[in-house]
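Example 3.2
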Amino acid sequence: MSGQDPELLRRLLRAKDRMDAASDEEWPVPRLAKVSGVSEAHFARSFKEAFGLPPHRYLLTRRIERAAALLRDTELSITEIAFQTGWNSLGTFGRTFRDVTGESPGELRARASAAPNQLDRVPACVLRAAHRPDLNIAVSEKRRLDADDRRDASNQKEVL
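Structure, written as tokens:
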């Protein structure tokens, strides 16, 4: 965390803890700012400075982490997992999951079930950190970059 005021950091951590505890709920900036007791603009700016991600992206990371764990560790349907982790649409869940992780929920589940479970002795905190999605750029920006890469690749094939 940054060199921010300790009282502000406590307030930001309060909002972060609420998101962690109920990542399936909607957490718009006005609600988070109210939990923190600061203005909306100050909250959004300070949260990103303290934790390195905007609040929405942080929440998205937590939802993807939770969904991936449920896919690996339960027999719940993908639809049930989508709704349990805060998505209102199975399509949005699947598209976002693929954009963030590089594989569909079904592909992750199949890969996890095909691999022998040798992770029993690894601490849970280490596993969570290893499986944490990297959302340094927005999902929409990632989609645009992927589309640009595909377009460039097809243009190169045409030239050859």
